[in-house]
Amino acid sequence: MLEKLPDVIGHALHDVRAGLDQLVFNTLGLRSGLAAIEVSSLAFVDHAPIPDRYTADGIGHSPPLQWAKVPADVASLVLLVEDADSPTPNPLVHAIVVDLPPQDGGIAEGALASSEHDGTGLHTGRNSYLQSAWLPPDPPPGHGVHRYAFQVFALKPGEAFSETPGRDELVDALRARAVASGLLIGTCERPDGSVKVGKTESVPFGMTPAAG
Questions:
Q1: Burial, 131: exposed, middle or buried (Cβ in 10 Å; 0-12, 13-18, 19+)?
Q2: 8 A C-beta contact, residue 178 and residue 172
Q3: Which class does domain 2-188 fall in?
Q4: To the nearest 5 percent, what fractions of the chain are helix, strand and coil?
Q5: pLDDT for 184 beyond 80
Q6: What is the DSSP letter of 139?
Q7: Using one digit for the tens of pLDDT, what is the confidence trace for 19-34?
Q8: pTM
Q9: I need a labelling partner for 165 at 20 to 30 A (CA). Which of 64, 112, 151, 208 fits?
């Protein structure tokens, strides 16, 4: 969608960004005195480019994610993916997933439903386009590097989420129930001419690289 915007719009909005300080991970002060969850991915390392297959320039599947050091006796985990550099007052929400079992240790590639993919049936909330799905990274041409924050929160027991929770409902639950948090950032950029840099591929979660 945004890849079709004229480059001039991306340049004009270059300095208009939500900002890292507006991420839920940073606005709620959850890290103060709380345990730190380690979040990682087999597809990319922290602050490195997200491979094309997980963006709007590829098949657009959600990337594999792993987490460790989750505190004992938590009820569930929540995943929130936001674009810290969207030209909007708040970061653009790319995915909300609630009720993740703490013991699973992660999610596989394509676990989240997307426009052309069913996913694995996770309890998914609404992204900023009001879809209960994964919204692949799709920055405007010429707008510069966008930072996509994969935020994981551990929750103590409490009131159940609605069928398709949005950002506001999620934030309220985190304020009341979060006991740990973790963050992984991947980047994506679509420069002038709608050609994205950093085209890379990765081995899907749980698979072994082929020889040769």
A1: middle
A2: no
A3: alpha beta
A4: 15, 25, 60
A5: yes
A6: P
A7: 899 999 998 766 555 6
A8: 0.84
A9: 64
Segment among 7-16, 26-35, 44-53, 135-144 with least mean pLDDT:
7-16
CA dist 94 and 76 (Å) reads 20
Asked if residue 168 lies in contact with residue 90, where contact means CB atoms within 8 angstroms, the answer is no
Edge-to-edge strands, sheet with 65-68: 38-40, 65-68, 106-107
Query: What string of DSSP letters covers 33-69?
Result: TSEE-EEE-SS--TTEEPPGGGSTTTT-PPPPEEEE-
**Tokens linked to 194:** 């709608």
* Amino acid (one-letter) located at 171: V
In angstroms, the CA 91 to CA 23 distance is: 6
- 166: which 2 tokens? 């949005």
